[in-house]
Amino acid sequence: MRERTTTISHEAVEIQRALARDIRARADAPKTYHITTYGCQMNAHDSEAIAGILEEMGMAAEKQQDLADLILFNTCCIRDNAERRAMGNIIFTKEIKKQRPQALVGVLGCMVQQEGAAEKLREKQRHVDFALGTGEIYRLPERVLHALEGRREEAFARGEDSTLYEGMPVLRQSPFMAYLTVMYGCDNFCSYCVVPSVRGRERSRKLQDIVREARGLVDDGVKEIMLLGQNVNSFGLDGGGPRFPELLRALHEETGIERLRFMTSNPKDLSDALIREIAENPAVCPHLHLPAQSGSDKMLNAMNRRYTRAMYDERLRALRDAMPDIGITTDLIVAFPGETEEDFEETLDLVAQSRFDSAFTFIFSPRTGTVAAKLPGRISQPLARERIARLIKAQEGITREVFESLAGSETQALADSPAKRGKGRLSGKTGRGMGITFEGGPELIGQIVPVKVTGFGSNTLKGETLL
Ligand code: SAH
Ligand code: SF4
Ligand code: F3S
Fold first, then answer.
1. Which tens digits make up the pLDDT trace of 209-223?
2. Are residues 323 and 448 in the same domain?
3. 161, pLDDT greater than 80
């Protein structure tokens, strides 16, 4: 077991919160903000903390980017296209600043954490006023101050990210579904992935801090909590404290939350104890996101995933033995360097055998600084696109079959909004994590409603309310 402890700081956050209140009183302080968020749930949740801090600084959200006093980008660099999209929009704000020179532009998130990225922004994008890394969000007040005072060196400085900061204000997007971070960072170093270098080493929060936050959410009327961590199976390893199954148990017993979900669980260390806990804990939803990445052992090895196809199959069997109706979703990468037609067919075979509810599919994107970026055997883009199209088609067929098998079954849906199509209908999410539409009025939004599945559309179920 690793001998490492995570430092936790409440004080640093308190100092910044006091500064936030001081900035509020300044005449030149920005009054409105606009945040564009890219990337995964972690970033979505970070944006909620960013918004929480900005509101404490006295700012209000502005829907229109070009009207905001403070324009922020919470960036992602997991694949080249995510990064290019963000960069294009950041560059465009130069035009906004021609009209409104007093507006401030800040770049946050994973892109900023890349080697030399903050310096490059500082030198090449003169219209950008500050940058701030993922581990330092709590320092936003200080950064805004640096930007207001034109202290450019400090406004782009990079700090350390080994400390974990507690006590940030959070402005949540939904009143009944909430994200809750249980751990930060990742130590896995899959060969293609930038996350360990942009999110730092694994740092787990204290179980009691998590339970306290969850209790607060339940008191506020939250029905479903999504626990976040790049590799929740490692929860607690850095502090020698309770592990993830114990955390799930404590959350159920000590908060009364109705639904718990979590992501992501790495197949290599999905333990029997966790499977048992998912099966036995009434709050944990019957859904697991278990990224397989590939069906080929050769590719899995080159990806440094540290499991084989056989191990993955065995974990799926164990999950389904314990919970026959569990829904499994996955992530798959095609065209990893050296992937032959046979390797790719093994991924197609994995999809055919595993019967995932759905899959997120990606074309390998070489990322600077990762091992895979230097591997020989790059696959051409036309071939990569052909493979991903075949893979998507194969999974679509399976998803359809899964949907068909659910016809006539009864489920519970958390109603979240009026359905886009169909008057008097709502859209919601089943415990298994599938989208579903059913009839109902706005008074049901935020409620868990019993629904009978009657059919399906292209990617959601259709149902009738059993009230
Ligand atoms: N921690 C999670 C994944 C986070 S990234 C896990 O280990 O499962 C989300 C997904 O993006 C990954 O599962 C992978 O499928 C994909 N991904 C990450 N880096 C990529 C790259 N360089 N090229 C293509 N896809 C990538
Ligand atoms: Fe990236 Fe692998 Fe960590 Fe997931 S487990 S964040 S894919 S390094
Ligand atoms: Fe998430 Fe993208 Fe960062 S996927 S962790 S926002 S690189």
1. 999 999 999 999 999
2. no
3. no
How many structural domains comprise the chain?
3
Kindly report the CATH number assigned to the domain that includes residue 202.
Answer: 3.80.30.20
d(CA 100, CA 397): 51
The residues with which 448 forms a beta bridge, in sequence order, are: 414
Based on the domain organization, do 74 and 182 belong to the same domain? no
Residue 3 has pLDDT above 60, yes or no: no
| Mean predicted confidence (pLDDT) in 89-93 | 97
In a domain, 172, yes or no: no
- Mutate-to-test residue for ligand 2 from 231, 233, 362, highest number of ligand atoms within 8 A of CB: 231
Strand, coil or helix: 282: coil
CB-CB contact of 181 with 151 (8 Å): no
Q: What is the pLDDT of residue 2?
A: 44
171, part of any domain = no
Question: What is the mean predicted confidence (pLDDT) over 57-77?
Answer: 97
Does the pLDDT at position 460 exceed 50?
A: yes
77 C-beta closer than 6 A to ligand 3: yes
Max alpha carbon distance in the chain (Å)? 65
Q: Is 112 in the pocket of ligand 3 (CB under 6 A)?
A: no
Per-residue tokens: 338? 């050296």
pLDDT value of position 164: 81
Ligand 3 atom with minimal separation from the 134 CA: 3
Q: Which ligand is nearest to the CA of 370?
A: 1
Q: Which atom of ligand 3 is nearest to the CA of 230?
A: 5
Tell whether 87 and 128 lie within a shared domain.
Answer: yes
In the structure, what pLDDT confidence band is assigned to residue 5 with cuts at 50, 70 and 90?
low
Residue in the structure block whose two tokens are 């883009």:
381
DSSP lists the bridge partners of residue 71 as: 34, 105
The reply to whether 425 and 357 lie within a common domain is no
Q: Hey, which bits of 248-397 come out as E strands?
A: 259-263, 287-289, 327-334, 358-363
In a domain, residue 433? The reply is yes
* Averaged pLDDT score across all residues of the chain: 95
> Which DSSP state fits 379?
P
Q: What is the CATH number of the domain that holds 442?
A: 2.40.50
121-145: pLDDT as tens digits: 999 999 999 999 998 999 999 999 9
Residue 139's domain comprises 6-164
Q: Taking a C-beta distance cutoff of 8 angstroms, is the pair 192, 333 a contact?
A: yes
Residue 108 Cβ contacting ligand 3 at under 6 Å: no
Please work out, in degrees rounded to the nearest 5, the angle formed at the alpha carbon of residue 15 by the alpha carbons of 14 and 19.
Answer: 115
What's the sign of the alpha-carbon dihedral 7, 11, 14, 20? negative
Q: Judge if 337 and 231 occupy the same domain.
A: yes
Q: Do 196 and 111 share a structural domain?
A: no
Q: Which atom in ligand 3 lies closest to the alpha carbon of residue 74?
A: 6
Does a structural domain hold residue 223?
Answer: yes
Are residues 125 and 12 part of one domain?
Answer: yes
